[in-house]
Design brief:
- This protein has helices at residues 34-48, 72-80, 94-110, 127-133, 161-164, 172-179, 185-191, 203-212, 218-231, 246-252, 258-266, 274-285, 288-300, 306-323, 326-335, 352-358; strands at residues 5-11, 17-23, 53-60, 65-67, 116-120, 123-125, 137-140, 145-147, 196-197.
- By secondary structure, the protein is of the alpha/beta class.
- It has a single domain (5-379), classed as 2-enoyl-CoA Hydratase, Chain A, domain 1, CATH 3.90.226.
- The strands form two sheets. It has a six-stranded mixed sheet, sandwiched between helices. A three-stranded parallel sheet has the order 4-6-8.
- 50% of the residues are buried.
- The structure holds 3,5,7,3',4'-pentahydroxyflavone.
- Residues 28-29, 31, 68-70, 72-73, 126-127, 149-150, 152-153, 155, 333-334 line the site of 3,5,7,3',4'-pentahydroxyflavone.
Length: 387
């Protein structure tokens, strides 16, 4: 079976190797399938213990996307055939298997003991952001578009978004999660989802410079290469869209309760600022249950660690599949493409009991599929930052 991941190693001039992973399903914008996840996870684990490997390079095939998200079509098929059981190993456990393996991979990248360079060119959404967020060296290009658009399909920002959205400036993370707003490369640098902006036509030259680098200090080697290319790409930076609106976003999201917060953003649908109006309209058209889950999830996970957040997300994702709007949202947006989802609720009319039910864990304390995730102390993680 083809797994749609190209796995290779690039020999450096000074005798080391860079492990390279290419998501290779360009027709589906490199959407992340379970087979791809299950190919990458053991490879990263092997490279972590391979003394020849000094860094990992992760990119997508084609010129449109790094990764457009998860394999939501497979999730849809699983939901409509009843595979929403909570045991990932059981025959009815596809949804639990998919999400638990995906979140484990995201966690592995966040805590990886060697530098991970993600070439985030083109579309980077949902599951693609999950792969990118935890990498030590995250590159965006002038044509990068990053978003967490899950509200559109009756999900919510997962893949660790409850962790990284809560760490963005002001309440911008909450706003981005509720509205699925697309960020350009300058915005991605501003909110902390990317580290370097480099022209997409420099991809081959960056790899060649990495091949020729002095790898005795891997982080310094990567920083030198990326810094030089970013410096020569400065004039390509797109106009920032988010930063100039941060005060407005913080005012718009300053509400006493979730219903008025959501209604307040939706009321901006008639704004004469097209960026804001589009955001408001995406929320208005999105799943009302998802909107309430996003506000609740970000509030309750604010002080949790990444591993804790991912465990909570697994509960919530299964609930969106089993009792939420996920199947209907994927049907309307990506299968039938009628763009007319019949959500379970209307905005302003989501019963508290329906929200609460989504946060009830189906596992006991010691049988959670992600019980083994342990956060690596921050000082042990490679980062682009020098100390
Ligand atoms: C929200 C999402 C996804 C999405 C659209 C959303 C998502 C995803 C895809 C997608 C797009 C193109 C493809 C494909 C999948 O779209 O997760 O296979 O060809 O994977 O609004 O979360």
């Amino acid at each position: 079976m083809t797994t749609n991941v190209q796995i290779d190693r690039l020999a450096t001039d000074d005798g080391h190797h860079i492990g390279t992973l290419i998501l290779d399903a360009p027709k589906s914008l490199n959407a992340l399938s379970l087979a791809m996840i299950d190919a990458i996870q053991p490879q990263l684990e092997a490279w972590a213990n391979d003394p020849e490997i000094v860094a990992v390079w992760l990119e997508g095939a084609g010129d449109k996307a790094f990764c457009a998200g998860g394999d939501v079509v497979a999730l849809h098929r699983a939901i409509v055939t009843g595979a929403t059981g909570h045991d990932p190993e059981a025959s009815d456990g596809f949804v639990a298997r998919y999400f638990s393996h995906e979140y484990r991979l995201d966690h592995t990248i966040h805590g990886y003991p060697k530098p991970v360079i993600v070439w985030g060119d083109g579309i980077v959404m949902g599951g693609g952001i999950g792969l990118m967020a935890g990498a030590s060296h995250r590159v965006v290009t002038p044509r990068s578009q990053l978003a967490m658009p899950e509200i559109t399909i009756g999900l919510y920002p997962d893949v660790g978004a409850s962790w990284f959205l809560n760490r963005m400036p002001g309440r911008s993370g909450l706003f981005l999660g509720l509205t699925g707003t697309r960020l350009n490369a300058s915005d991605a640098l501003f909110v902390g989802l990317a580290d370097r902006l480099i022209g997409e036509n420099r991809r081959d030259a960056v790899l060649e410079d990495l091949r020729q680098a002095d790898w005795r200090e891997p982080i310094a080697a990567i920083n030198r290469v990326l810094r030089a290319h970013a410096r020569d790409s400065q004039m390509l930076a797109p106009e920032p869209q988010l930063a100039p609106r941060l005060t407005r976003i913080d005012a718009l999201t300053d509400a006493d309760d979730a219903e008025s917060l959501i209604a307040g953003i939706i009321a901006a649908s008639d704004s004469d600022d097209p960026w804001l109006a589009r955001a408001a309209k995406t929320l208005a058209a999105g799943s009302p249950l998802s909107a309430r889950l996003i506000v609740r999830q970000l509030a309750r996970t604010r002080r949790l660690s990444l591993a804790e957040v991912l465990r909570e997300e697994l509960t919530l994702s299964l609930a969106c599949a089993a009792r939420g709007d996920l199947a209907e949202g994927v049907r309307a947006l990506l299968i039938d493409k009628d763009r007319n989802p019949g959500w379970r609720h209307r905005h302003g009319e989501v019963p508290e009991a329906d929200i609460q039910a989504c946060f009830v864990s189906p596992w006991g304390g010691d049988d959670h599929p992600l019980r083994g995730l342990v956060d690596r102390p921050a000082e042990e993680k490679p980062t682009h930052a020098t100390g």
